[in-house]
Structures are given as C-alpha cells and as structure tokens.
Sequence to fold (213 residues):
Amino acid sequence: MNAELFAAQPRKVEILAGATLFKARLKNEADEFLRTIAKIAAEAPFRHMVTPGGQKISAAMTNCGNSGWISDRKGYRYAQVAPERNQPWPLMPERFRKQAIDAAREAGFPNFSPDACLINRYAIGAKMGLHQDRDEADLTQPIVSFSFGLAAAFQLGGATRKDKTQKILLEEGDVFVWGGPARLFFHGVLPIKADAARPHTLYRFNLTFRRAA
Ligand code: MD3
Ligand code: FE
Fold:
C-alpha cells in the first residue's frame, strides 16, 4: 500500500473566531525550513532563557528579524540584539516572511507586517505552560506559527486562565494564524513525546512571526 495515499492533505480549519489552522501547508518545505533554521542557529545559537521568576524555560530559543523575544530576571521583552552576543539577530529569511504574510492574508489579516520571528526548539519532554502573548506593541496584528519536526499537543484556552482548554494536534508543516478575538487567549504546549515512527527526529521546532514594535 502506498503511504502517500494516507499523507495529510493541506486544508484550512477555523478553530474559533480569529484562529485558523492550515493543516500540512508547509509539509513539502519542511526540510528546507529545517536547514534554514540550522543556519540561523549557527549565527544565534539556541539557549535556555529564564523567566523573571528564575525558572528555566524548557524550550530552547533563538530569533531572527529586527526584534527578538527574550526573557531574563528583568522581564520579558523584545530586543534588537541577542543579549550574549550584542549583535543584531540574523535576518528574517524572505521566504519565511512571505509564507507568514500569505497565511495571515488568507486567514483575514491583510496588513500583517512581521518584524520578529521567535524560534522555539522542544526536546522530548519539553513543554510550555499556559500563557498569553502580550509583549507586542500592536495587538491588532496577528501571530503566525509554523510547526516542524515532532508533533505537539497544543492547549488552547480562552480569555482568562480559568477558561476550559481544548487540545489541538500541531504536526509538521502546520501553520496557525491567531488574531482578532483569539489574539490574547491563553495557550500552552503539553510535554512533547517521541515518535516511534521517526526515531531520528529528536525535536519539535515552532516559529512564531510577530509584529513586535
Ligand atoms: C494562541 N509557542 O512562543 S505557537 C510562544 O508551539 C508559543 O511553541 C507555542 O506559545 C509553540 O509564545 C505556540 C501558537 C500560538 C502563538 C501565539 C498565540 C498560539 C497563540 C497567541 C494567542 C493565542
Ligand atoms: Fe505564546
């Protein structure tokens, strides 16, 4: 039997108002994206930052673009230089930027103009607790996320921390656009699991394109 017959086909799913999932949209480009991520990381290495409370963040992070998201004892913020290098972040690859803008437009956000791309690398067992993304200046701009490598069970809540959450599977090549009413919703990532069918795939990568400034 031909495995291609069962491969995920691209499709658009409206999860809730303002949150649109494009399943498998970048699946064929995954290897190219992973190579480009490796080049960015050769310039600005992945590292584990700490929260203002002093907890180590379990996803390793780096950035590309004019601004990059950072966290340390002083707080969460965007910075135009990588702190330990005192140099600008690597340029946001034009292909990345275009894919993010195209997805945002198709989800109903024609004016998306990202200046920051946070790259999260999750090893097996890494997770991200429920949180809101509110460090960006203009909350009318959406966030666009690309997932590669291992899958994740993504938790989507509501406007308050107490709201019920739903679980959404994010797989290789999935593109998620968040804006409008969903922009400030709580969300998180459950611990990443190994995939017996992909024994050489050790990480999940998630890229989030944002308008920071
Ligand atoms: C829903 N990253 O970096 S991306 C983050 O998979 C982050 O690495 C997750 O949450 C990850 O801040 C999820 C999808 C995402 C991004 C922003 C959102 C979902 C969102 C903002 C509001 C609601
Ligand atoms: Fe987030």
In short: The longest helix spans residues 30-43.
